[in-house]
Design brief:
Structural class of chain A: alpha+beta
CATH architecture of the largest domain in chain A: 2-Layer Sandwich
Number of helices of chain A: 5
Number of domains of chain A: 2
Largest sheet of chain A: 10 strands, mixed
CATH superfamily of the largest domain in chain A: Pseudouridine synthase I, catalytic domain, C-terminal subdomain
Strand content of chain A: 25-35%
Oligomer: homodimer
CATH class of the largest domain in chain A: Alpha Beta
Distance between the termini of chain A: 24 Å
Largest interface: A-B, 25 and 24 residues
Shape of chain A: globular
Number of strands of chain A: 10
């Protein structure tokens, strides 16, 4: 008899090669799977995830799935995984027994990311590794205006990493809000799913608008070009956080 | 000719022995003074501060003062200090030429601190070093009620470190608010000045109220006892941030 669990994860992406197992360093997947294996008498445990994140990208509300050969109360599983994942900056906030046939990636209805730019001369001291530091003034209003051109269903080839393995470049972007809060520029985005590097490429291109290098309407031209070279550079991972993912019925 | 500058500092207290120079490790004062010395041709530069902070305590809006034998434009001084303080988690956010006779400590009219408790089972991943992790549920409403007994002018001997060097234990506490925001309990406090460890000792005692070990009114008894042993333990430095300090006229 096996039990499948849904896990609500928080992690600090610094010092990890990303979610996925890599030969060149420690991944979040490895930390979680090794902890889960301790609970499976040393047998290997495979974890699936709602949305893979790259090296340096953080998560406040990532969702993962593991299957164990035993029936642990969810809160005991949470505490045990957190114990074995110490001292790594990965924790399980909550655990639920997963519904029959549920998968964190294939059943995800909506994913949310947040990207934070620190827009001031001084580099970050308190937020190092958690923001993209832009010392020159950015115009958040123009960025918000440019962002609106990306909303809706489009071919996002211009904002897709060369390494992206998705079959189709078509995605429906439901939200891409840009607002200033003091020295911070906060970008919040929502979609059923995103292409690889899509958020970081959208942010890197909006930065051109914020800096006055591009007019807001050039976001539409970049999108229409369906050519990665027509959009701006990829923003660094530091400012990006996977915020949450929705399921129907809700898991957490 | 010398020029005195007011500096608005941000720092991450982790890895420092605190503001003040110590033989056993690196202090924020040392990082700042060594950077300032580079701008003084190697001559020693002494920095004064609005409020000394202990090892592990952070600052968002600390104010310091340095005097240099030269007249640098404030924004150039900021950029130069930030350059020389790399890669330490200390930055100068802003610089002003100080008013005649001004001192960051003696002219401070009001200081603000924030203390953040992460109140959930899972240890912090994203906020490690920046919160006090309390896995057992705390009642923020009871803590807020208990906090009100400390407002006003009192002898704060019960909340004062043995090492405190202030002449008088009398202080006027103008604000001590406790509120819950999700898994966070946020404590904000304001006074003209605080005794050594006063904020951390107030928080450590309020935690007893939040946990139901103490009734809110026992805060008044602890205060009236004028005995450090009558109050609760010192909360860890991680959750504490020096937020801001007021001057008249305003400096920043």
């Amino acid at each position: 008899m096996t039990t499948t669990y849904a896990l609500l994860l928080e992690y600090d992406g610094r010092g990890f090669v990303g979610w996925q197992m890599q030969p060149n360093g420690l991944s979040i997947q490895q930390v979680l799977e090794e902890a889960a294996s301790r609970l499976a008498g040393g047998a290997p445990v495979a974890a699936a995830i709602a949305g893979r994140t790259d090296a340096g990208v953080h998560a406040e509300g990532q969702v993962a799935m593991i299957t164990l050969d035993r029936d642990l109360p969810p809160q005991r599983l949470r505490d045990a995984l957190n114990f074995y994942m110490k001292p790594h900056a990965v924790v399980v906030q909550d655990v639920r027994v997963a519904p029959e046939g549920w998968h964190p990636r294939f059943n995800a209805l909506r994913r949310r990311y947040r990207y934070v730019i620190l827009n001031r001369r001084a580099r970050p001291a308190l937020e190092a590794g958690h923001v993209w530091h832009m010392p020159h003034p950015l115009e958040a209003g123009a960025m918000a205006e440019g962002a609106r051109f990306l909303l809706g269903r489009h071919d996002f080839t211009s904002f897709r990493a060369a390494s992206c393995q998705a079959k189709s470049p078509l995605r429906t972007l439901d939200r891409l809000d840009v607002r200033r809060d003091g020295f911070h520029i906060i970008i919040e985005t929502e979609a059923r799913s995103f292409l690889h590097h899509q958020v970081r490429n959208m942010v890197g291109t909006l930065k051109l608008v914020g800096a006055g290098v591009w007019e807001p309407a050039q976001m539409a031209e970049a999108l229409a070009a369906r050519d990665r070279a027509a959009a701006g550079p990829t923003a660094p991972p530091d400012g990006l956080t996977f915020m949450s993912v929705d399921y129907e019925p809700a898991i957490f």
